[in-house]
Amino acid sequence: MRTEPRRRRSRLAAAAVAIALAVGLAGCGDDEGDSAGGAAATSAAADASASASVAVFPRTITHDKGSTEIKAQPKRIVALDNSLVEAVVALDHPLVGGIGSYRDQSGFPDYLGDAVKDAKDVGPLASPNLEAIAALKPDLIISATVRHDDKYDQLSKIAPTVFVKTTGPTWKDNLRLVGQAIGEEQKADQKLAAYEARAKKVGDAVNAKAGNPTVSIVRFVDGPTRIYLPKTFSGIVLADMGIARPENQRDPEKFNIEISEEQIEQADADYVFVTTFSGGADRRAKFLANPLWQRLNAVANGHVHEVEDEMWMTSVSLHGAHVILDDFARLFAVDAAK
Q: Which of 28, 102, 184, 318 is a Cys-bridge partner for 179, taking CB atoms 3.0 to 4.6 Å apart?
């Protein structure tokens, strides 16, 4: 009478052991004998992770001009400022249209590559071509209040439109807002974090090698010569590196100092970086020929370096920030920390 229950209990125990073994094997993926169940579990976990990273739309973006609903992840983006073009490209999205350059320049910079190869230039910056923008059938337009405040309503009738307040010192926040608008906010955060970590490494190496030097940034334009302060794009990159500025260049609120030839000494520092914008070549020649320029400590020590205006000034982008780090690493002969 007791034989059948014992057999039943024996079969149940064997089944339990088999299940336990199967579970144990599924949890072990260290060799080629990993079970199909383990592979399936791994695949499911990967799918879940991928799903978690997919942008959720529709979403409402709060921006400088109010709020805008974006119903689906944008695929046809128009950016009406060169820095915003670069923000979209930095997040690995192509554009159908945009304004690639600033003031009297035209076209998109070559370094943006394939991301803009099919993009239509809808400039000029001051008065973008609204008909050309509409013809591109965009599903997102990005611009700045400082650029096109009076065109926001017209642009909003063409497509969902998101405005940052300004450009330049807000370049990091702008990248984050663009990330939110196109469903790449995590990528924006990750790329900014990677840049800031690299900036610190390069800056630490420069400071260690050159004894915590002060650095001045001088820009020659078709107007008064400018010394760029911490509240500028290039100034922010120097701050991220931990590079010191001369005492007269530490105002956290001012954008720049405009100087005449008689005020050249205000540009002095241990190292001076010089850029020249379109129209500034004549003024640059006069400054550099002035005896006051020759008396600068940086000039006397051979510590004046010409750098690209396109990168240090007009790009206002993550790409431009990395180029500034490249320049520092090269000129100070330190690890580029890439």
A: 184
The owner of tokens 């005896």 is 291
User: DSSP letters of 225-257?
Assistant: EEEE-TTSHHHHHHHHHT-B--GGG--SS--EE
Mean pLDDT by 10 residues, the chain (338 residues): 39 39 36 38 40 75 98 97 97 94 78 93 94 98 98 98 96 98 98 98 98 98 96 97 98 94 97 95 95 96 97 96 98 97
Query: What would the 3-class secondary structure string for 295-309 be?
Result: CCHHHHCCCEEECCH
**99/82 Cα distance (integer angstroms):** 5
Cis peptide before 252 (omega within 30 of 0): no
Q: Is the peptide bond before 58 cis (omega within 30 degrees of 0)?
A: yes
